[in-house]
Amino acid sequence: MIHASSNIDPHGSDTIIRSVPSPVPSSLLAWWFQCGKTEAQKEQQQQQQDPLGPTGCLEVIYGIALHYLHETLDHIALVLLAYSVLCVVLYRVMFHRATGGSRFGRWLVRRSHLPPCSRALLVTAHPDDEVMFFGPTILELRRRQCRVFVLCLSEGNHDRKGAVRRQELWDACESMGVRPEDITLVNATHLQDDPSAEWRAVTIANQLLRQLESLDAELLITFDKEGISGHPNHSAIYYATASLCLSGMIPNNCKVLTLETVNLCRKYLSIFDLPATLLLSTNWVILSWKARRAVQNAMRLHNSQMVWFRKLYIIFSRYMVINSLREINKSDVEFEILDT
């Protein structure tokens, strides 16, 4: 819009022509667009001033949760790293053979804590149990020049491979230093390898008592009530042993050790279960890496059982390198049976 001013130009002009902006757009469409743009700007400014609407609250909560999740994961990763380093260092120190080591060093390298004995009886349910679960204990007892007797209560004929598994049992035991004449395999119709078959405690107890009396064993080793893998045949051996303890038929010079069942997480931690074992167990055996390979090789001699999940078991299971055992007596058995 052109507006004429009456002011006099100092150079002689009578008027000065100025351009003044018009408050109203020249067309209705332009005016409507400007109004719409102004309303959008107002809404945007209002959202910036008050961002905590329903969507804004969710975004804030999500951002805070994501932040704390990242921090928590970082802390967990650091804790796991520190724990892994601790386990590796502790394991290396335990088997470090420094000449003239300090008293602290000698205490720390104590890789086993078992009652002294010269004759031990190991009772298992099936061929391969002696290596799959008790391998570290057998190697440690043989290292101490203890004579180890193995009593296997069935020939493992569940898959009709009894003859093959019998030979595998002998081969595996001999590879760990057990004499062939010290292995006893029971092939009884009422003690067959079958998870659904009930093994009577009285039948097993008679077998155990006969062996204990004839061998004059100073140490009896078998499963605990959970049976490590939950197999009912394993648990049946414990209850038979418990019945002998309750009746006082275990010889006074014979101690009873049961292999501890651990949870699934600890079961597959290998050497990373070392701190928990040392803190929670009273009797334990921890093998060197070289001895661990000896147990693995003995397990591979049970070739008929080498399915894919047992190959993974050989690699990751703590029972290939660590055994933790608990000594039981009459009072312990009474408490466990009442608890059961």
Automatic annotation (TrEMBL):
Source species: Anopheles merus (Mosquito)
Lineage: Eukaryota, Metazoa, Ecdysozoa, Arthropoda, Hexapoda
Similarity remark: Belongs to the PIGL family.
One BP term from GO: GPI anchor biosynthetic process
EC code(s) of this entry: 3.5.1.89
InterPro entries: GlcNAc_PI_deacetylase-related, LmbE-like_dom_sf
Any GO molecular function: N-acetylglucosaminylphosphatidylinositol deacetylase activity
Transmembrane segments: 76-94
A Pfam family of this chain: PIG-L
GO CC list: endoplasmic reticulum; membrane
Keywords of this entry: Membrane, Transmembrane, Transmembrane helix
Enzyme class: hydrolase
Protein's recorded name: N-acetylglucosaminylphosphatidylinositol deacetylase
